[in-house]
Amino acid sequence: MDVFFESIQQQFDKNFPFVIYNKPNSDKIIAFLSLDDSLSFNEKLDKKGFVFAPFDGDDFIFFDEQNSEIIKKASFNFDESLTEFIDILPSNNVKTFHINLVEKGVEAIKLNQFSKVVLSRKESVPANQSDFISYFKKLIQTYKSAFCYCFYHPKVGMWLGATPEQLVKINENIISTVALAGTQLFIENQKVTWGDKEKEEQLFVTQFIEESLKPFVKNITKTKPFTAQAGNLLHIKTDVSAEIKSEVMLSDIVLALHPTPALCGLPKKEAKEFIIKNEGYNRKFYSGFLGEINKDFENNEDNKSDIFVNLRCMELEKEIANLFIGGGITKDSVPENEFIETINKSKTIKKILG
Ligand SMILES: C=C(O[C@@H]1C=C(C(=O)O)C=C[C@H]1O)C(=O)O
């Protein structure tokens, strides 16, 4: 093992917190190694470091640059072999629960309780926590255009993921974000068409982002919706950017957006209540956010933030991986199809568990 991953392994063996990550299309891996095992938070998002935030609540776990050793590995070329993951399909009970959940969601939309809700499930599969470095290497070699990470804190647990979705990127006074929604399988050489359900759910996300940013920014511009690939999946995406007004804090923007309708629903409050009441499990950090705040640690430049939504992720316990997978529900959702969508999405992580 090289020096970089040896340091990570030692940190883990000491039971000290760390986060390792690789930004989309970058050939650098960065790691924050905490100098002690304390659990720190930064709910104001006003310091320089790395944040790991849950779906619900403001316990934004924080790696402060002042309390971390930051190490980097430039250019990598791993040759981890991907063997086939023996996928056992979820039981009928799991399927029935998810289908009922989606039906309940559609019902609530028809009763005008909200217009979109993102409903998810947790799936546990065999895995080995001691293989986390190999899993991480597989993630970054397989999903080059995703934000790949491995987070560990002895008081919180271990999480890994390869997320295709940016929450916000900030460069001085310029903010960029994306509206991502709608899912279909990527099939080589097949022409891509999108149905009205997918177009509508993605439009909801774009409109929400524009409305939420308005008080804090000026000169909003956006691209037309386009098809973007994430692993074995395709999504509809719109890039949005704007100028941040002076006096606006990073937390103003993050809290206005998080959790976006790509992960929660619309209106946010009602959809979130429905999720917490009906999903039947705790999302913890799935559909939270994570990333660098107030500094670009790859290039050592201040006044930059690079934050992603925590999707296509797993919580890695000693001998089990908990996968978290969801999808946007609108009035036109077909419950059976939504269940199949969660199966397709679960393949992102299953692929690297083999
Ligand atoms: C909620 C998830 O993904 C989100 C939901 C999508 C959808 O509903 O089509 C697409 C991309 C993501 O914004 C997930 O992967 O768990």
Automatic annotation (TrEMBL):
Cite the InterPro entries for this sequence.
Answer: ADC_synthase, Chorismate_C
Q: Which SUPFAM superfamilies match?
A: ADC synthase
Q: Which residues form the Chorismate-utilising enzyme C-terminal domain?
A: 99-345
**Classification via PANTHER family:** ISOCHORISMATE SYNTHASE ENTC
Q: Indicate what this protein is called per its UniProt record.
A: Isochorismate synthase
Species per Swiss-Prot/TrEMBL record = Paenimyroides tangerinum
Task: Give the source lineage, highest ranks first.
Answer: Bacteria, Pseudomonadati, Bacteroidota, Flavobacteriia, Flavobacteriales
